[in-house]
Design goal:
Blueprint: H1 2-15, E1 32-39, E2 43-51, E3 68-73, E4 78-85, E5 88-93, E6 100-107, E7 110-117, E8 124-134, E9 137-147, E10 155-162, E11 165-166, E12 171-174, E13 182-187, E14 189-190, E15 196-197, E16 204-212, H2 214-226, E17 249-263
Parallel strand pairs: 1-17
Antiparallel strand pairs: 1-2, 2-5, 3-4, 3-6, 4-5, 6-7, 8-9, 9-13, 10-11, 10-12, 10-16, 14-15, 16-17
Length: 265
């Protein structure tokens, strides 16, 4: 009987110890976000300018119109980007290998600058579908094949698309341990539920490969490190280091570009 009374007392004590903790999240002042990419194709290159929103606000990012946007290169050329849609600035041009480009933006009374050098082209030879066995289960994944040049340092970013939907994963790679080697880069498709998915027969996959400079690699690598899944995977969330001045968020990337598509058999 005494034991029963003791157990009842413990249950009452622990049930009365519940406490609701409210976390007060302060919204930081809006920051400029610049997403700027120039590649080696003759297309309408785009620079997007938006602003961050508060933690509790809807994820609708205000666009920044009326900015002055230009890009100059190390050969003395200057390219003016004109606003073609709200917050979207474009110029039809082509990036050249080995040339350094400098972006200059004046938006809402503030000046933002960044530089990026286009690497030499490293060709993606092909893509393929390979099978791996995990705990007795077979899974098919996409792989990109290329030969890394031995006489230079290279940084790569990949995008995987399956049936018109981009994978949630961020794929970046460098040649610190593989300089001059034949590379097979495996790209696991990651869906919205944060799970890797097996490829199915008939799936259409597309792999985009960008040759990027070291600063842009650092940006994407930081993001990929934060996107680790599960307990103790990934780093504490923080804004990745940007190559843009004046505390702007985002990146300015001058990169090579290739795309290869395939159908899963």
């Amino acid at each position: 009987m005494k034991q029963l009374i003791f157990i009842l007392c413990m249950v009452v004590c622990f049930s009365s110890c519940k406490k609701i903790i409210s976390i007060d999240t302060e919204n930081a002042p809006p920051q400029i976000v610049i997403e700027a990419k120039i590649n080696d194709r003759l297309i309408d290159q785009q620079i997007r300018i938006t602003k961050t929103v508060g933690y509790t606000d809807a994820s609708i990012y205000p666009t920044v119109s009326g900015a002055t946007v230009s890009v100059s290169d190390s050969r003395g050329n200057n390219y003016v980007f004109r606003e073609t849609a709200a917050g979207v600035y474009t110029n039809r041009m082509r990036g050249i290998y080995g040339v350094t480009y400098t972006m200059n933006i004046v938006a809402e009374g503030q000046t933002y600058t960044a530089s990026s050098k286009m690497p030499n082209l490293v060709r993606m030879d092909s893509i393929g579908i390979i099978s791996n066995t995990f705990f007795g289960n077979e899974r098919r994944t996409t792989a990109a094949y290329l030969v890394d040049p031995a006489n230079e340092t290279n940084f790569y970013r990949f995008t995987l698309n399956r049936n018109g939907i981009n994978s949630n994963r961020i794929y970046v790679s460098n040649d610190r341990l593989t300089n001059g080697n034949k590379l097979r880069i495996q790209l696991y498709f990651n869906a919205e539920d944060d799970e890797d998915e097996d490829l199915l027969s008939g799936d259409k996959v597309a792999v985009e490969m960008e040759g990027i400079d070291s600063n842009v690699f650092d940006y994407w690598y930081a993001l990929s490190s934060q996107s680790g899944r599960g307990p103790n995977q990934g780093t504490t969330p923080a804004n990745p280091t940007s190559n843009i001045s004046n505390d702007a968020l985002g990146y300015f990337s001058v990169n090579t570009y290739q795309k290869i598509t395939a159908t899963v058999k």
